[in-house]
Amino acid sequence: MDWFPLWNSLRIAAISGVLVFFTGILCAYYIARLPRVVKGILDVILTLPLVLPPTVCGWFLLMIFGLRHPVGQLLQQMGIQFVMTWYGGVLAASVVAFPLMYRTARGAFESFDETLAWSGKILGLSNTFIFWRIRMPACRQGILAGAVLAFARALGEYGATSMLIGYTPGRTATVSTTVYQLWRTNDDAGALVWVLVNLAVSAAVLLAVNLLERRNKQGRRAV
Amino acid sequence: MKSKALNKMLGIMLALVMAMSVAACGQQPVSEPVELTVFAAASMTETLTEIAEMYKAVAPDVKIVFNFDSSGTLQTQIEEGAVCDLFISAAQKQMDALDASKSGGDNPKGQDFVEPGTRVNLLENKVTLAVPEGNPKGITGFEDLAGKLKSGGVLMAMGNSDVPVGQYTQKILAYLGLDEAELAKAGCITYGSNVKEVTTQVYEASVDCGVVYATDAFSAGLTVVDTATKEMCGQVVYPAAVLKTSRNREAAQAFLDYLKTDACMDVFEKAGFSPAE
């Protein structure tokens, strides 16, 4: 059996998970501080991929990064191509998974007790220190949840991915597009194998999260 | 005042409804408009819509309703009991499965939907090799493609093995002496789940070339660099037949006859079809 789709899905989900983790936190942190109107507008734009069907996201991505369109052509001249490559899969998964990270991180930041940050300032701590050592640990629960949701969403991305990178065995095939392709070609046995693989991976991820959360709680109690 | 006018209107409407129901009960086939339901392959959308407009002048009391989809889906809908007067399939396989005169593997369920004596081969389509604008990889034809696929420098889009156009492409690859599984492993082939998806991938220049019908290439304005011969993949024939479930067999037969006239063939040929031999 060719395990490429699993490897491809995992690398796409891992890379877009990391990308989305940092961009989502940054956006959540800075946007929470903006004036109300600007915040409202940006919030809508950044959350849209969550409510839009993935096919709509895929269409927009294709209209921007397709090789018939200016941005896509410009990037191609620079040697970067998103259509029909696995980088395109990272792009599609990131766009679709971003709102999950952003939303949950923002919710966590908003419930953060700002007096803790001020106390840190009074004690002469730097903003970077306050962010990474006070704010982030305090919001750990929410941020962790967001990261898991984003990773899981990226792992399961199908719609935008199939529109942007299609199904090329050995190059762009992911677990989800492989399942669809096998089902379309009446290979239910083959599809079942990949369905089981997907179930196993998803269960492993959820299990890891649960273990992590329990350890966190125990750690806290000890303190 | 107002309520009086309202009453009057209600009265008139009631009278109209009654008159209509009486007319519906009466047997007056001459003045009654006929509604024809035509199930046709998706690739005929543009041409048949145009022809239906023309047909209004020929038979003003016939109203044509279309259902365009992939031939396999249409076949399933007919099997499930959908009302259909005329069926035009993009391949013999789907028509055979509904035709009682076929048996064994061609009609595995032994179904009997086709009205005997009405089945004809209406049109022929061609399988073509299409490239995006500017032909970035300079592909000149199937032979040239074979060489380029072997060296691994191109990405070709084709329908998967469940789509008719994918089956034709498999035959072409075999004719060229190429091993599809090996090419797929090398990442030279990307699979679409219907011919329109393949067409779009070529149109968007996402791939270097794709194998689609002449009609799809035409409607998307793609550059066609080669056309598959009969030896490469066989003939692509569109059969048509009146169905037994039809309530207007004569009107359906009349429309089918009209499709074979020169005026309609002109429309078909403009779109890349040719008359079936």
Summarize the structure in short:
Chain A has 223 residues and is mainly α. Helix content of chain A is 80%, strand content 0%. Chain A has a single domain (4-174), classed as MetI-like (MetI-like fold, Orthogonal Bundle).
List the keywords.
heterodimer; A: 223 residues; mainly alpha; MetI-like fold; 80% helix; B: 277 residues; alpha/beta; D-Maltodextrin-Binding Protein, domain 2; 2 domains; 6-stranded mixed sheet; 43% helix
Mean pLDDT of chain B: 87
Total helix count of chain A? 11
- What Rg of chain B, in angstroms, do the CA atoms define? 24 Å
Number of E strands of chain A:
0
Shape of chain A: globular
Can you write the helix and strand succession of chain A as a string? Answer: HHHHHHHHHHH
Q: Output the CATH topology of the largest domain in chain B.
A: D-Maltodextrin-Binding Protein, domain 2
Name of the CATH homologous superfamily of the largest domain in chain B: Periplasmic binding protein-like II
**Strand count, sense and closure of the main sheet of chain A?**
none
Distance between the termini of chain B: 71 Å
Q: How is the quaternary structure best described? A: heterodimer
SSE-based structural type of chain B: alpha/beta
The CATH architecture of the largest domain in chain B can be named as 3-Layer(aba) Sandwich
* Number of alpha- plus pi-helical segments of chain B: 12
- What is the rounded distance between the termini of chain A? 49 Å
Describe this protein's structure:
- The complex is a heterodimer of chains A (223) and B (277).
- Chain A has helices at residues 4-31, 36-51, 54-65, 70-77, 86-110, 114-122, 127-138, 140-156, 159-165, 175-184, 188-222.
- The longest helix of chain A has 35 residues, at 188-222.
- Chain A has one domain: MetI-like (MetI-like fold).
- The mean pLDDT of chain A is 90.
- Chain A is globular and about 65 Å long.
- Chain A is mostly helical and 223 residues long.
- Helices cover 80% and strands 0% of the residues of chain A.
- Chain A has 11 helices and no strands.
- Chain B is of the alpha/beta class and 277 residues long.
- Chain B folds into 2 domains: 34-125 and 237-275, D-Maltodextrin-Binding Protein, domain 2 (3-Layer(aba) Sandwich); 127-227, D-Maltodextrin-Binding Protein, domain 2.
- Chain B has 12 helices and 11 strands.
- Chain A binds chain B through residues 2, 62, 66-68, 83-84, 166-172, 180-181, 184-186, and chain B through 132-133, 155, 157, 160-162, 184-187, 189-193, 201, 203-207.
